[in-house]
């Protein structure tokens, strides 16, 4: 067995981050973030910048409490490592479901496309999330395409 490269370790840390979200495992997600209270930040799509470990982790607890189902299909993943810092960019193809209907079934599933930047720092315990920034990808609807002036 060969030792993993830094890029492979960061790719694994990034995958573990999304898997923890899919499972709704706040403890695992908490363990993935740096412990430096003042140094971390997070921007969820449509949210203001969240700063500090407590505020960031509180946001994930809120999201997990209000999301019955979420699955991430990551595409366009690119990893860059410079010394003890790593940058991951990717497209999050998200499938999520709202709270259960009265019948007990999962609410309607919704698809969303988000581009994300995840910054990791190397620690003695491995690569930890330093910052996450997600931005929605706006797509044109058929109506918008029809309204475009013709040449």
Structure description:
The structure is a single chain. This protein is an alpha+beta fold. Helices cover 29% and strands 38% of the residues. The protein has 4 helices and 6 strands; from the N terminus they run ααββαββββα. The protein has helices at 6-23, 26-32, 53-65, 142-147, and strands spanning 41-43, 50-51, 69-82, 85-97, 109-123, 126-136. A 6-stranded mixed sheet has the order 2-1-6-5-4-3. β1 (41-43) and β2 (50-51) form a beta hairpin. The longest helix is centred in the N-terminal third of the chain and has 18 residues, at 6-23. The termini are far apart.
> Strand fraction band?
35-45%
| Alpha carbon gap, first and last residue | 60 Å
Would you count the extended β strands for me? 6
- What is the number of helical segments per DSSP (H or I, 4+ residues)? 4
Q: Which ranges are low-confidence, i.e. pLDDT below 50, for 5 or more consecutive residues?
A: none
Order of helices and strands: HHEEHEEEEH
Strand adjacency order, main sheet: 2-1-6-5-4-3
> Oligomerization state of this entry?
single chain
